[in-house]
Amino acid sequence: MLPQKSTILVAVMTMATLLSLGSLSLMPFDVYASHSYEAGVQGDNIPDNTHIDLSQLNLTSAGVFPLYDSSPNFVSGHFLYKGPCEDGDEDNDGTPFEPIVSVIAGHIDESANLTHVDFVPLYYVGHASPIPGICVYHAHIPDPLEGGSPRVTDIDLVNFSPEPVVFNPGDAVDVNIQRTLGNIGDYYANDTLLPLQLAGGNNKVIDLNEEEHEEAAANNANVQQTLGNLVQFNANDVKLPHESTGENNKVFNFNEQHDNDNDNDEDDNDEEEDEDQDHNDE
Fold this sequence. Notes:
Layout: H1 4-25, E1 48-53, E2 58-59, E3 64-69, E4 73-84, E5 102-107, E6 116-119, E7 122-124, E8 134-141, E9 154-158, E10 165-166, E11 172-183, E12 205-206, H2 214-228, H3 254-281
Parallel strand pairs: 7-12
Antiparallel strand pairs: 1-11, 2-10, 3-9, 4-8, 4-11, 5-6, 5-9, 7-8
């Protein structure tokens, strides 16, 4: 028989697991570019966040730069990438806003026949990319709607261009892993896809602000509003990052506030004493 404390601990862990599974089962199936299927965390399940500064990184042609490895666990989470991209000029040979250094993900195993990687679908965030030739992207790991490898243990940058690429100051990657979904095992056996076999391709880039995606983006906002049920979404309140130019953070000094509160308390006490004195005089 387990001691009382151990029994309580097992019960708490069981309840946390059931809540976690319940949150996954409640997720809608019609989400589009939504964070909802990333599920978030509950209880003591703490996200694993990795931030990588790419400033001045020189990546040779066919060079691979590993970003994240959770082997043998395949995971789900969110991916942020700021890096060099095609600037969208008509004279450019590349696709507008396509990354010059690609993002791949999947499982890279010691055994080649268990390795499978693919391009990560990237969502271009134009309103956070005000400088031509530098783009900000978000991505879902994995992305059940837009493709890519379905089970991810590894995320990497690969330079498939013929020339070396030097990253700009401020370029970075941020990987926020929300959940561990299981053990990769031999899931990709007989489905080999090696990094260099992707040469000649690139990431799919989705811009939800383009006309063809406007309705889908609106549906995405509705899904997140329904799931969160905490913040009222109002399209008229949208404020883009560059629109904050000329402003700065509001700064609070709680010592000053505390002094004001004390002054108010003293004034209140004085008023109460005056009232008491008037009552005694009567």
